[in-house]
Amino acid sequence: MLRRESRRPRGGFTLLEMMFALVILAGGLLAMLMVQTQALKQGRYGRHTTDAAQVARDQMERIMRVPWDDPAAQPVGWTAPTAVDLAVQNDSGAQTQQTFDVSWRISAATFNPDVRIIEIEVTWTENDVGAGFPRSFRLASNKNNKPKLPS
């Protein structure tokens, strides 16, 4: 009796299928790495914006506490930037120093002589790879000469 050998394909993956699977996997991992890098940058920007807002609120509070007749509360153009250094966390969790430049302007309100408009601008540079990216945060409020009495 003659024995016939069958030529059935064996189960498993071919080398070509494995290469395609690895290329797809590598593409997905690369995309995830790029998204993670962008998330770290945006997280750092968010932390710096929060810190800049706090610096602006602190300066606004100082100006609001100055008496109405004090020369420091009189209308002026934009002041020269004042550097404020804060310790901030970097992406690896270590403390680093971030410099914020604070300037402000006090102007008389055109709608009421008993009101002054206070504007504060905080600027800083994001130190990403390559050139730094300048960022800014602005805060504005009104200062009244005659506070409202409770009714």
Secondary-structure blueprint:
Blueprint: H1 15-65, E1 82-89, E2 95-108, E3 115-126, E4 133-144
Antiparallel strand pairs: 1-2, 2-3, 3-4
Detailed description of the structure:
The chain has 151 residues and is α+β, with helices and mostly antiparallel strands. It is 34% helix and 30% strand. The chain has a 4-stranded antiparallel sheet, covered by helices on one side. The radius of gyration is 30 Å and the shape is rod-shaped.
Large-scale geometry: rod-shaped
How many individual helices? Answer: 1
Ranges where pLDDT stays below 50 over 5 or more residues in a row are: none
Largest sheet: 4 strands, antiparallel
Strand order of the largest sheet: 1-2-3-4
> Helix share of residues?
25-40%
Estimated structural class = alpha+beta
| SSE pattern | HEEEE
What's the mean pLDDT score? 86
Tell me the fraction of residues in β-strands, as a range: 25-35%
User: Count the strands?
Assistant: 4
Number of domains: 1
- What is the CA-CA span between the terminal residues? 115 Å
Give Rg in angstroms.
Answer: 30 Å
In short:
The protein has 151 residues and is α+β, with helices and mostly antiparallel strands. The chain is 34% helix and 30% strand. The chain contains one helix and four strands; from the N terminus they run H-E-E-E-E.
